[in-house]
Amino acid sequence: MSEETDAADDTTHHAFWADDVADEIEARDPEEPVVIKGGVSPSGVAHLGNFNEIMRGYFVAAVLRERGHEVRQVFTSDDKDPLRKLPRKLADADGNIVGLGEVDAGALGRNLGKPYTSIPDPFGEEDSYAAHFAALLKADAERLDVPVEMISNTELYENGDFDPVVEHVLANIENANEVLSEYQSKVDADYVPFNPVCAECGKITETVTSVDIEAGTVEYVCTDMTVGDNTIDGCGHEGTATFREGKLPWRFEWPGQWQVLGVDFEPFGKDHAEGSWPSGKDIAENVLGIEPPVPMVYEWFTLNGEALSSSAGNIVTVGEMLELLEPEVLRYFFALNPRKARDLDLTRLDQLVDDFDRFERAYFGDVEDENLTRFAERAYPFVVEEVREDRIRLPFTFAAVLGMTDDEDLRIKMARNEGFFDDETPEAVIDEALNRVERARHWAEKMDNQFNYRLQVELPEFDFDPAVEDALDDLADFVADGHDGEEIQGEIYETARRHDIEMGDFFAAGYRLFFDDTQGPRLGEFLGELEQDFVVKRLRREE
Asked: Per the Swiss-Prot or TrEMBL record, what residue ranges does the short sequence motif 'KMSKS' region cover (predicted)?
């Protein structure tokens, strides 16, 4: 089953999965606005994996808005969490991935154990490390035209939004701990589910010695925090913190967000489905007394066959992807069935683009695939900024071939020769079609693949033997007679044999003329893509 048709399989009622989720939400008769949430802890690079929840939520929000609902899509930054370890990679304000050696890493190292909002931005641009991370996600959402509201957990605490939740959990601590003990081993008679921020050193501490519900405060001792095999030292300070000067542990904080924000739907990865969701649902129902939101578990996608991992460096940002793909292709990737695992192989982005192009053609009735057509008819309007039939999509690999030259006139001639443009094609449509060329060129450069060569518009310097020159003239005559790339490729071999020339020497001569190099793509097929007169003149060594 193709990547497109798997989004409209027999396991769903609707052709588009977002309609099924919208049905579940509507079945609860939610109050307006319907609240759709995602969230992340700002622990490292804001990468494409973090964008799963934003995009899954976006499609559900779009369907609900189409049905007449007011929708609020929010994304929480769990920025009152403590920085537990140094990330290996960060992303600058433009989304470019950098190492710690390129920033003020000390700003992070000196602040282990402190909330992300209390840590300086290592790039020195935003108010905090957390604000830098949130700005990246917000910029990515804007790049993909997703209207999402970024919410700081720190601000929810500071503004008092969390006060009722914290007060309820601590006032019912026996019940809260009894429910939590089903999911967490370190719950004893002294456990208090609240983590104050130490007034002396600014670190999060987990040791609360007493609670005063009426005053809205806790007494605490700043003790050490264990992170894996490492220890973040506490300062030993004994103090008092209000409910606004600390945070709930994650298993309480997540359902607390549902209550504070009135969340109706939240997608999350399968890691939460196996861990945090069961406890969150239990705490919501049996501690907070609220109905948990409609859940949707999505499969994580892999990158180049491996799990996304900031620590291992196997990540890619939205900004980096948009250097390689149009926004609508990336939105299409997230529109596919979220319950199906898939791999984003950067070396084969041409396949993803081809799938998108076929998906687009299916919407306009040009593909004989019933499942794909049903899926496209429903999902395509949510994927593109504007539904228009006059677009021309150049195949991605052909766009990469056009990217071998900077000469726009030559690009247009080559596309015209392949039948993509004609005399009636509007200039604006041509310009839009050629936008793909620069992205395909960046892909070729990034992957250093068979398209990563530069066509020489001016005749390079050369020094060929007479036999090679005669063979080039014969090949020029063959091209002038009108043949496709596959036929030209075969003729290159035949011409070399007729002139008793080493095959490698003849190919090297061709590469010298067109690339000023000794190697390149499959020469005959490439020449078949070029403008015929240009190829003939170049083979004849004419300016």
From this structure: 307-311
